[in-house]
Fold:
Amino acid sequence: MTRRVQKQGRSQVHTDAAIDAVWAVVRDVTRTGEWSHECVSVTWLGDATEARPGARFRGRNRAGVFRWGRVCEVVRAEPYELVWRTVSTVLYPDSTEWAIRLQPDDDGTVIEQTFEVTKAPKVLDVVYAFLVPTHRDRSAALADDLRSLGEVASRSVGAPS
Structure:
């Protein structure tokens, strides 16, 4: 059993939802709590109201008994690709870059999510792995998130925005 957190990962699933329906959910980061196993809510910070480079938001997370919040910054927000990073702070000196990319296919959309830890003090690696053991291997949970994202997008079709 590993005693360290997973440093990078890639998950990919297919959904029957149309690419524009999936993109509408992805680019509205305040909807992340609808499909994520860990992020329970997101709020924009400052004057940000949409995903655009430099916009910041706070994600509130839960894993077991642990709850925490992280400030994130949008790196790129182009049709069918959203990239953001966690902002390093004194309390949380690590940083991870996340991306969701969408590709159309004949009968729906391929959703891909990647992450890479770009900054992580070594001592926190062990501490985080101990406190949040689900971060030792996130592959299955993140793939489940993407399936949930596809379901949310499918239900959102035709719903008022």
User: Anything to note?
Assistant: The mean pLDDT is 87. The two ends are 45 Å apart (CA to CA). Residues 121 and 151 are 37 Å apart (CA to CA).
